[in-house]
Design brief:
α1 packs parallel to α3 and α2 runs antiparallel to α9. The mean pLDDT is 82. By secondary structure, the protein is mostly helical. It folds into two domains: 159 residues, no CATH class; 51 residues, no CATH class.
Length: 231
């Protein structure tokens, strides 16, 4: 059972591996060019493990940002995790000893895999979710280390590398749209974001959009969880 579960988890994460290693390399190179070596890359990817925030964090470190600025920026960049994780409350309810790490390691891509799997095979569900999370983080950590090493021996322009995270988010959104029958979360995110962007402008739309998304998803929570059970 454990071997079968591990094999299934690994196979499911292969697409993420392809993306995370490349993106991790980009982060490692940026961090190295900012003057921070391999230990920084390893520690940030192991303990922070937030792709977009780590990219932003390079600029914060290089610019000597204050603690307050760092805290506020982190909240704004990572706030989305609070909102899309609502749909995982039911799935993680009985995960036992795995729960702390599952909560910590719930990235956009891990969420996309875990909320769309149909679990037709007989496996240990909680172990499967744990291993998917572990495999994905291992890819990110490995990519960051490789990038840091490459950045020390192959210096080149890093302009445009940070756009890779935007590309990954678009790919994750597309994958979730294709594999999920319930498009309420996706449509809610799009409409709320566009509405708040028009109302509040590009510099102030993020927090209102997150609050609006939270309210709508909380209202539809029972329906979303019902659809997940049916799937």
């Amino acid at each position: 059972m454990k071997q079968k579960t591990a094999r299934l988890a690994f196979l499911k994460t292969i697409p993420v591996m392809a993306g995370y290693i490349v993106l991790g390399i980009g982060f490692g190179i940026l961090l190295r060019n900012a003057g921070y070596g391999i230990l920084w890359a390893f520690a940030m990817s192991l303990l922070i493990y937030a792709g977009s925030m780590q990219y932003v964090g390079v600029g914060l470190l290089a610019g000597g940002a204050s603690v307050i600025t760092t805290i506020l920026t982190t909240i704004m960049v990572n706030a989305r995790h609070l909102f899309y994780s609502i749909s995982m409350v039911g799935r993680y309810k009985d995960s036992g000893r795995y729960k702390p790490y599952l909560v910590f390691a719930l990235t956009d891509e891990t969420y996309s895999l875990l909320c769309s799997d149909d679990m037709t095979e007989e496996v240990d569900v909680n172990l499967y979710r744990f291993l998917v999370s572990v495999f994905n983080q291992s890819y990110w950590v490995s990519g960051s280390i490789i990038g840091s090493l490459l950045g020390s021996v192959l210096p080149f322009s890093t302009e445009g590398i940070d756009f890779s995270m935007t590309a990954l988010f678009m790919a994750a959104f597309t994958e979730q749209w294709i594999t999920s029958k319930d498009h309420i979360p996706a449509v809610t995110g799009l409409i709320a974001t566009l509405l708040c962007l028009l109302l509040f402008g590009p510099d102030r739309f993020l927090i209102p959009a997150m609050l609006l998304i939270t309210a709508v998803l909380s209202f539809f929570r029972k329906r979303i969880e019902t659809e997940e059970v049916k799937e």
